[in-house]
Design goal:
The protein is an all-alpha fold. It folds into two domains: 58 residues; 31 residues. It is built from four helices and no strands. Keywords: Membrane, Transmembrane, Transmembrane helix.
Length: 102
C-alpha cells in the first residue's frame, strides 16, 4: 500500500508536466494562426492549465460525492429505486421522458 502512495505522489507532477506540455503544443499550433495571438511558453501553459482547472473543474480531493467516475444518484435515490417494483420504475421512467423529452 505504501508503494502505491509513493507512485501516486510521483505520478501527479509527471501528469501535470505532460498536460502542460500538451496545452502549450496545442495552443502554439492553433491559436496564433486562428486568432493572431502570441505563442506561449511552458510556464504560461502550466498557469493556463491550473487556471482552467480552478475555473471549470475545481480541485476535488478524496472520493467522489455520489460514486462512479461520472457521479451517479445519491444513495437515498438508489435505495428508493431498488425498492420500486417494475411497474413503478416504468411509470417513473415515463414521467421523466415526458418531463425532459427523452
Amino acid at each position: 500500500m505504501k508503494h502505491r502512495r509513493y507512485f501516486f505522489l510521483l505520478f501527479i507532477p509527471v501528469l501535470l508536466a505532460v498536460l502542460a506540455g500538451v496545452v502549450m503544443v496545442l495552443w502554439n499550433a492553433v491559436v496564433p494562426d486562428v486568432f493572431g495571438w502570441r505563442r506561449i511558453a511552458y510556464g504560461q501553459a502550466l498557469g493556463l492549465l491550473v487556471l482552467c482547472r480552478i475555473l471549470f473543474g475545481g480541485f476535488h480531493f478524496g472520493p467522489r460525492r455520489f460514486g462512479g467516475p461520472f457521479g451517479g444518484p445519491p444513495p437515498h435515490v438508489k435505495e428508493k429505486w431498488m425498492r420500486m417494483s417494475e411497474e413503478e420504475r416504468d411509470k417513473f421512467k415515463e414521467s421523466w421522458r415526458k418531463r425532459f423529452g427523452g
